[in-house]
Protein: ATP synthase subunit a
Amino acid sequence: MADTNPIKQFEIHPVAPFQVGGYDLSFTNSSYFMVVAVALSVGLLALAMSKRALVPGRAQSVAELLYEFVANMIRSTAGTDGLKFFPFVFTLFTFVLMGNMLGMFHYFPAPGAHGFTFTSHLIITVALALLVMAIVIGYGVFKNGLGFLKVFKPSGVPIAILPFVVLIEVISFISRPISLSVRLFANMLAGHILLKVFAGFIVMLGAAGAAWPIVGVLPFAMVVGLTALEFLVAFLQAYVFAILTCIYLSDALHPGH
Structure:
């Protein structure tokens, strides 16, 4: 009987065991899929733009649409001067999107493992969120000096309530990496668990034999519907992660606005 444990799909397994001084530095299935995500993103974009033409083909059109989608996202949130961060935001968006999408193919070929969603692990999303905040703070201080502290003092706030507003802004700023990482992790985790649960219902009801066509239709329909929804969520979560990054970068460029 197939394994219906909904948590098993998130287990990390070593692909190439490696230890140094008692520390486990093994190359895992999570590492493997992160490498695959980078390789596929670079490979597909390079292939799409390898034969550039004035009248683009399908692959070039998709690459150009992706480029403009991210560029417009940055312009609408951080302004035209935010385009200096385009390489970072574009890389972040495609990496998260590819990671989310790869997790939808459970039987994606992997050495010693099936498909794996590395964005469903909190340590990965926290690392990405901390990277974003490090760039925001680093560039904000570099560009504005102590003026970066204006990010905690919105313009036009009456002095009477300024201390409370500053306190709220500080708490909000500190909570940014938490909300940024937990949002992506929780959505991918919950969606995949739900898919696995309903898929498990199909397997268990299959034991009913002749009664399966009657009792198994509903969970099967739910799996089909949830799969389509999860593909949409995979894209939306990459978009949300990228656009929040742009909003935070806008604070580094224009503190106090």
In short: The radius of gyration is 22 Å.
